[in-house]
Amino acid sequence: MDWDIDIEGVNKVLTDTVTEVEPFDGLVTTYGDNLKAIMTGLDYDIFTIVAVAVGEYSEHWAPILEAAATQVGASLTGAHDAVTAYMDGQEEMALNAQQNASDGVIPDPPGTPDESKPTGENIAV
């Protein structure tokens, strides 16, 4: 399994996504105010049915729009945090490998059973 992550590629995708999502932040923020303005404009008896429809529309879609905005933000944050943790882990593994090398520790090849590891005891005596 290949766990290499193209950090520059992920950064570009996250940056591009944030850029594309930014206009929706304003829409979600002003959604209620915009509908209120529409409702004020429909404050005539002849538009009562339209005002009711707009109100029902708002009640239906407002929570969905808010949930979508929250999910997009959480997804972007999660992807950023995951890549940051991956990079921190890479740095920690490199530091551990360097420290082990300076201490003279030779790592076992993958799949080496525990009982075959050297104990450091002189078994020739």
Protein architecture, described:
By secondary structure, the chain is mainly alpha-helical. The protein has 2 helices and no strands. It has helices at residues 7-41, 48-102. α1 packs antiparallel against α2. It starts with 6 loop residues before the first helix and ends in a 23-residue tail after the last helix.
Strand content: under 5%
Characterize the overall form: rod-shaped
Radius of gyration: 29 Å
Multimerization status: single chain
How would you classify the helix and strand content by structural class?
mainly alpha
How many helices? The count is: 2
Measured between the Cα atoms of the first and last residue, the distance is: 44 Å
Topology pattern, helix = H, strand = E: HH
Stretches with pLDDT under 50, minimum 5 residues:
none
Mean pLDDT: 81
Largest sheet: none
Give the proportion of residues in helices: over 70%
Overall strand count: 0
